[in-house]
Amino acid sequence: MDGSFLIGSKSETANDTFRAMNPATDKALDTDFAISTTDHVAEACKLADAAFDSFRELDPEERAKFLEAVAEEIEATEGLVERAMAESGLPEARLTGERGRTCGQLRLFAKLLRQGRWENVVVDNAMPDRQPLPRADLRQRRIAVGPVAVFGASNFPLAFSVAGGDTASAFAAGCPVVCKGHPAHPGTSVLVGKAIQKAVQKCGLHEGVFSLIQGPANELGQALVEDPRIKAVGFTGSRGGGLALMKLAQSRPEPIPVYAEMSAVNPVLLFPEALKARGEALGKAYVGSLTMGSGQFCTNPGVVLAVDGPDLDAFAQTAADALAEAQPQVMLTSAIHANYDKGVEMLSSQSDVDTLARGAEGSGCNRGRAALFAASGKTFLANPKLAEEVFGAASIIVKCADMAELRQVLDQMEGQLTITFQMDDGDAEAAKAVLPIAERKAGRILANGWPTGVEVSYAMVHGGPFPATSDPRSTSVGTAAIERYLRPVCYQDLPESILPKAVKRGNPLGLPRIVDGEVEA
Amino acid sequence: MDGSFLIGSKSETANDTFRAMNPATDKALDTDFAISTTDHVAEACKLADAAFDSFRELDPEERAKFLEAVAEEIEATEGLVERAMAESGLPEARLTGERGRTCGQLRLFAKLLRQGRWENVVVDNAMPDRQPLPRADLRQRRIAVGPVAVFGASNFPLAFSVAGGDTASAFAAGCPVVCKGHPAHPGTSVLVGKAIQKAVQKCGLHEGVFSLIQGPANELGQALVEDPRIKAVGFTGSRGGGLALMKLAQSRPEPIPVYAEMSAVNPVLLFPEALKARGEALGKAYVGSLTMGSGQFCTNPGVVLAVDGPDLDAFAQTAADALAEAQPQVMLTSAIHANYDKGVEMLSSQSDVDTLARGAEGSGCNRGRAALFAASGKTFLANPKLAEEVFGAASIIVKCADMAELRQVLDQMEGQLTITFQMDDGDAEAAKAVLPIAERKAGRILANGWPTGVEVSYAMVHGGPFPATSDPRSTSVGTAAIERYLRPVCYQDLPESILPKAVKRGNPLGLPRIVDGEVEA
Questions:
Q1: A436-484: per-residue pLDDT in tens?
Q2: Counting Cβ atoms within 10 Å, is residue A212 exposed (0-12), middle (13-18) or buried (19+)?
Q3: Which of A298, A400, A405, A414 is catalytic?
Q4: Confidence at A362, pLDDT banded by 50, 70, 90
Q5: Catalytic residue among B12, B87, B261, B389
Q6: DSSP class of A297
Q7: Chain-chain contact of B255 with A442 (C-beta, under 8 angstroms)
């Protein structure tokens, strides 16, 4: 295991080091990881800035090949899944799947680059004879915003870390990336970072396209966001962390956008007919979604809303029985585990909140015991603490007096990543009445499934109104994530000799275009 | 003249009133305009929120008809141009043209709505048999963000005020608008506001779709931006004003985006061959662009960059001669005129800055005398004050030692709305070397024209990196302005019975779609 961090093509060492902890044992893993300094941050940003103009002007085909090369290098990296298991406590199957998702994501962005729509070329041809004034030749395309700071996430050591969705979409847009690896998994980070470094070299790109900063202190991330060469930030993590980055980014002499995916409780609405017809099946499936991966998903179902009555009682009983049998799983870090326990304690100590069940007790470190609570709609409305995210397998069933109160509860909630409808045919009218509220509140609305499991595709939205994310106009999963790192530029009457290829009159890149307001045939 | 302000369908009066000043005479115009209170702001926002769900779900055709109705009502408003002349000091031809632009803008957004691309429907069909996991049916569209606060601009009493670009694009997106009229032209504002009110009524829309708040105090705008029902802000004005709104919006419990178009000096680069071949013509055209409308355009050319030498001297001499003959024109308000004089004084008092010429002295109030300065590249690099916008017909010629220094000067400048190249064939190599810097700095790059005069079209970008705007991913002119007020929502496995029309499986609205990653035939 190599303990260096990566500045352009260099692997750097240092006297100051830190180690990763194995959350399953609370023991430090081998390998001392060199800690970057703020000087290294500045050097990485300087290199990224130097790489920017050539990287963003690569033909899309060349950037697509680079993304594919990153995927290949990750697949060729030995010991990656094993190291990620040791550093995260996540099981092999999950991490093997996550590696597949990470590489699939890179390849999907390669495909997107070849399709060309992302560049959004729009041409208004000159109208020299127009009265009273002629119209100039106007050509718009989107270009990369500049070097991007990416923060590795704790809960996706591969798919939302060094070569995860934020990096893949920034690279696709043409933005060099300076990544701050998550301090819980430095070994995983450097393995993936070296894979990117190799791909940069194999593709003959400027070394500044990628750097990896490592270290446990917040000041590195702060220096990164404050560096004037950084033009956008990608982050998945806690609300506190996201808000701190937003504040830093807004306080810069030149404010920049932060794309922070922060927190959500992902309400699940059980409509009456569905609850009546399949309450027991729903109860079991709910606990399956809730306890999967120890509940450490951004889309974990933390709140269930339904109208009180015997059908809801039966659902709750089934869920409680299933949850009581849920075996505790290792959580990602001891800090996350401690926060989870604190959150469960907070929920259970609120007045008029019932603890319906706790998961099985287990042995070993940092095991998260699932927790299921219930409260009335009135109690939930009166106590904002009950709507706070407890990261892990904790959830609360809110027993509403009627559909009107259910709508009121939903309407009072903050922005969410997802809202789920469990509904049968007879519920359509009731669901229709809730839909406008759901659309205002969430980036994704799903029916008769569970919010965990986020498809990486064209139509996906993994985003939503604040505080689910810092910017509801964006998604951090799916091809639309590229839009976070692009801005439009218009070229007016530029001679062919200096027009960028993408907007040249002959369209040498064969890009799809809107010409004079219509899709070009 | 009616002195009321407009809350939904009501015309409100008040005991507290204010009057507009005629800048050409410094005399108050007739009509007492009722001053709104913060209670009125809250009432307008409440109505806007109540109107939101129905307005955003109108068929695009219905919203298009509403935009066209607004245009028709504006055209049918008697005395509009006359009142705008009295309140702004702008001449009749300009305001007649601006009215045409305002109505053309509304009609272009109507056309855009009918084309349907704005809704960005993306469908990933279900793949029930996919291994290892099936794929759900995923449908993305963009929906309106919510009620929008629009601030009227001083320098475009029609095209960037009550029914201007911000309002037109917000309406097009499906956002109700609460507009704060600019206090310099309350009569113009209420005339246009009544036209919108009539269109709302004729189209049978919810009255909350539009309200107009009036008054001279900043606290009204502050209350508007802080209202929790407002979800985005459109603003064109000063850097100070824009920064204040950004800060307010970020300090809300739920931060919201501010689209502020703030300040720019719009550098014009004279390349050597062009300067040699047509320096005199350029000098005259430059002064024409600079002094048009007393220089009160966001895209006014405030800085000229060129390599020092006899060709630049000839250009400067021609420009100085032309400027000395420029007749002073009435500026928009006495405050703007006073600020202009202060800015000119500031520039002329800087060390190593030459005053090349001042425009003719004129009689009458608030006449802005044009001003032309020159400084070396070294002086300009050392003194950031020389790069500050002086709103009005003031400009500085920066004499660079060579092309390398010219690039350095440009690279050091802040974000701009436009950068202009004056170039001939022989300048192509030099222009190519500057283009990447220009792309990083500006939203629009133009050749052999002048930055004033912004086409309202599909390809236009009237935006740019901070501080030209608060958000370089956006434009405030052209059809892409609609994107500021939209956010994506994904629908997963929703039954046809509750899917919104735009994403129903049969595509009843006939919208253009991306299906499984490809443009649908």
A1: 999 999 999 999 999 998 999 999 999 999 999 999 999 999 999 999 9
A2: buried
A3: A298
A4: confident
A5: B261
A6: S
A7: no
pLDDT in tens, A215-253: 999 999 999 999 999 999 999 999 999 999 999 999 999
- Please determine, for residue B263, whether its predicted confidence score (pLDDT) is greater than 90: no
Under CATH, to which class is B5-116+144-262+473-485 assigned? Answer: alpha beta
B254 catalytic residue (yes or no) = no
Interface contact B42, partner A, CB < 8 A: no
DSSP state of B456: -
Ordered DSSP codes for A451-520: S-----SSS-----TTTTBS-TT--SSSGGGGGGGEEEEEEES--TTTS-GGG-TT-TT---EEETTEE-
A positions 393-432 inside 8 Å of B (CB):
414-415, 421, 423, 425, 428, 431-432
Check residue A209 and give its pLDDT. Answer: 98
Active site residue B261: yes
Q: Which two tokens stand for residue A9?
A: 């093509």
Active site residue: B45, B175, B179, B298, which one? B298
Write the pLDDT tens digit of every residue in B354-382: 999 999 988 899 999 999 999 999 999 99
A514 inside 8 A of chain B by CB: yes
Residues 6+ away with beta carbon under 8 Å from B396:
B302, B303, B304, B347, B353, B372, B373, B374, B375, B380, B386
A497 at interface of B, judged by CB pairs closer than 8 A: yes
The pLDDT tens digits for B113-157 are 999 999 999 999 999 999 989 999 999 999 999 999 999 999 999
Q: Determine the distance in angstroms separating the CA of A141 from the nearest CA of chain B, rounded to an integer.
A: 8
**Nearest chain B residue (CA) to A109:** B517
Q: How many CB atoms lie within 10 A of CB B74?
A: 23
Q: How confident is the model at residue B521 (pLDDT cuts 50, 70, 90)?
A: confident
Which DSSP state fits B279? Answer: H
Quote the DSSP letter at residue A116. Answer: -
Provide the residue ranges of all domains of chain B, joining segments of one domain with +: 5-116+144-262+473-485, 268-447
In tens, the pLDDT along B323-354 reads: 999 999 999 999 999 999 999 999 999 999 99
How many separate helices (H) and strands (E) can be counted in chain B? 14, 25
Length of chain A equals 521
At the top level of CATH, the class of A5-262+473-485 is: alpha beta
Chain B 220-249, residues with CB within 8 Å of chain A CB atoms: 246
pLDDT digit string (tens) for B489-503?
999 999 999 999 999
CATH for A268-447, among 3.40.309.10, 3.40.50.1820, 1.10.1750.10, 3.55.40.10? 3.40.309.10
Element (H, E) at A446: strand A442-447
Query: So what's the pLDDT on residue A395?
Result: 98
Q: What is the DSSP string of A405-431?
A: HHHHHHHHS--EEEEEEE--GGGHHHH
Whether this model's ipTM surpasses 0.85 comes out as yes
The answer to whether B481 contacts chain A (CB < 8 Å) is: no
Q: Is residue B212 a contact partner of residue B57, using CB atoms and an 8 Å limit? A: no
- Is the pLDDT reported for residue A1 higher than 90? no
Peptide bond into A467 cis (omega under 30): yes
How much is the pLDDT for B362? 83
Query: Side chain identity at A372, as an amino acid letter?
Result: L
pLDDT tens column, B89-122: 999 999 999 999 999 999 999 999 999 999 999 9
CB spacing of A517 vs B111 below 8 angstroms: yes
Task: With both helix axes pointing from N to C terminus, report the angle between B165-173 and B92-115 in degrees, rounded to the nearest 10.
Answer: 20
Three-state SS at A61? helix
Q: Give the helix/strand (H/E) hosting B233.
A: strand B232-236
